[in-house]
Write a structure and sequence with these properties.
About 80% of the residues lie in helices and about 0% in strands. By secondary structure, it is mainly α.
């Protein structure tokens, strides 16, 4: 046997070059897509068919079904998508991932593309240093494209030659000549290969090389492709391990959907492969049967394998599309809703890591800001309950506010670090830089709102400790201010989910005026009560303290609205009104 350990290391290195090229290619495409990919992702929620198209389009752009499915799991965990809405996207991603196989089989085996790949790198390399960001992103994608095919050529040259290493052929023969049992065995091999490479595209490329070099025949290669369809679901399931129940369900659906597809295909595998052979033979006249394993048929066999991969995934979507509700019920039974905590927010959305495009990363960060706003709103509800409930029940609300204040501090830190990573690693555009600065301002203001609720809770707690109940008039007046603040907060939460151009500016300004007007009215009532000696000075100090802190919350809410809009709304409110001239 002439194949040495050093030759094996060369094979591993070649595989590394291929995967590295694919990563650069995928990252470059994501950066080029940027905002367009965000627009595509927004179309997910319409219906299941739209979801399939969206999943296909996103995977075609990113060149990675793993990226799409992990993204979907993150979206579901963050509440951007429901579990049911995610199912269509996952199905579409299965079809989209087959594009890579076609690209490799056409360019990698039918043409001598290595000289073109090297020339492509030579042409686009200087543009990596261009001032134009879009040009740099295009250059990155094209260089990744070149490296990908150079890596593929290295793999082809590094795999052992069957004729010179008959021992390998004899070893494989002992496992590939077991009939249907060999099919089942190599489904497992394909699954393990995908787990090891953490990329179904890389596993598919290896399978195509093995088929092209004559290591395995067409049925065995098809079995490996089926295994790779199962293996590709593992990454999303790993990502969902620390997610909520809905994220886990989305990942489980991906697994069951692909496994069911593999099972029905295994029942029809040989007739289906004969159909692929017939299609290729008809499309390429004079081509020997790709089932024969003949050397002259190997290049066409790679096309047949890509056709098998695409046809299988399309048919699987078509056949199972109507059964999706049943699969959903199965998943919900296996992954039931355990506790109320499963529905609570977790900062998992940005924990899946930076996207290659700054715009996409900021889209992730914005979802976290929406959830941050939800946490702050829950603190509002808890404080209102603290104020209105009897003393025996007030302690639990103080504890809730304390825990959420700690959560707010943690959210500010984690989101802030994520925004810093975007600035340092994603080469953001000018508009992205502005969004990053606005997002920093938002998390700071939201955290300050959380602090203010906690400080007010401590004020009420001191009254409880001193066994002093707040006067009924005080509680009613504070509740009036809380209601006005809540209206402003609801508007703020809506604005957190909007693009800057869609922020409801006039509503924010009107609600800010209401907050200030209510504060002034209640402050006048306070002084009137003091003058009439309706309550003690100490009671009045507590009331004024709560009133001023609530007004500060209103100011921070206004700051958040300004950051969402990307402009100073207070300046807008001070513009002079044009009044009609009286002609009389």
């Amino acid at each position: 046997m002439s194949y040495t350990f050093f030759d094996f290391l060369q094979l591993i290195g070649s595989l590394g070059v291929f995967i590295f090229g694919m990563k650069i290619f995928s990252d470059g495409l994501q950066k080029i897509a940027g905002g367009k990919l965000r627009s595509i992702l927004k179309g997910m929620t319409r219906n299941r068919f739209t979801g399939v198209v969206t999943g296909f389009g996103t995977t075609a752009i990113t060149q990675s079904s793993t990226t799409t499915t992990v993204m979907v799991v993150s979206f579901v965990n963050a509440g951007l998508l429901t579990f049911i809405e995610s199912t269509g996207v996952i199905m579409g991603a299965n079809i989209g991932t087959t594009i890579t196989a076609w690209m490799v089989s056409v360019f990698g085996f039918k043409f001598q593309i290595t000289p073109i790949a090297i020339a492509t790198i030579g042409i686009f390399f200087p543009f990596l240093f261009a001032g134009n960001i879009k040009l740099r992103n295009i250059a990155e994608a094209m260089i990744g494209f070149g490296i990908l095919f150079i890596g593929l050529e290295f793999i082809k040259d590094s795999v052992p030659d069957i004729d010179e290493n008959p021992e390998i052929f004899a070893f494989l023969r002992s496992y590939t000549d077991l009939g249907y049992l060999s099919i089942l065995l190599f489904v497992g091999v394909g699954t393990i290969l995908t787990l090891l490479t953490q990329s179904s595209s890389a596993a598919t490329a290896i399978t195509l090389v093995m088929l092209f070099q004559g290591w395995i025949d067409f049925p065995i290669a098809a079995a490996m492709i089926l295994g790779e369809n199962i293996g590709t679901t593992v990454t999303a399931n790993i990502a969902a391990l620390i997610g909520n129940v809905h994220a886990k369900r989305a990942a489980r659906f991906h697994f069951f959907f692909n496994v069911i597809g593999v099972l029905w295909m295994l029942l029809l595998i040989y007739p289906f492969l004969n159909l692929m052979d017939y299609i290729i033979s008809s499309a390429i006249p004079g081509s020997p049967s790709i089932m024969s394993g003949a050397e002259e048929a190997r290049a066409n066999a790679t096309l047949g394998l890509s056709l098998f991969h695409t046809t299988f995934n399309i048919l699987n979507v078509v056949l199972l599309f109507g059964f999706v509700p049943l699969i959903i019920k199965l998943v919900e039974k296996i992954q039931p809703m355990k506790t109320e905590g499963d529905d609570q927010f977790q900062i998992q959305y940005i924990n899946s890591g930076l996207m290659s495009s700054a715009d996409l990363s900021l889209n992730q960060a914005q979802r976290e800001l929406e959830m941050f706003g939800k946490v702050v709103e829950k603190m509002h509800y808890s404080f209102k309950a603290l104020l209105l409930k009897k003393q025996s029940k007030q302690r639990k609300f103080i504890e809730k506010i304390k825990k959420r204040e700690e959560l707010a501090d943690n959210l500010e830190l984690q989101i802030g670090e994520y925004l810093t990573q975007i600035s340092e690693n994603s080469n953001p555009s000018k508009s992205a830089v502005r969004r990053i600065r606005n997002f920093h301002n938002i998390i700071n203001d939201l955290e300050r709102i959380g602090d203010l609720y906690y400080q007010m809770a401590k004020t009420v707690e001191r009254s409880i400790d001193n066994d002093e109940e707040l006067e009924e008039d005080v509680v009613k007046d504070v509740d009036v201010m809380l209601e006005v603040i809540h209206n402003a907060m609801l508007n703020m939460r809506n604005n957190l989910s909007r693009e800057s151009k869609d922020v409801d500016v006039m509503a924010a300004l009107e609600l800010e005026k209401q907050v200030n007007a209510t504060r002034d009215r209640l402050r006048n009532l306070h002084y009137a009560r003091l003058e009439k000696n309706s309550y003690s000075v100490k009671e009045g100090i507590i009331f004024l303290d709560l009133l001023n802190r609530l007004e500060k919350i209103g100011d921070h809410i206004m700051n958040v609205n300004e950051a969402c809009a990307g402009k100073r709304l207070k300046v807008i409110s001070m513009e002079p009104e044009i009044t009609p001239v009286d002609d009389k």
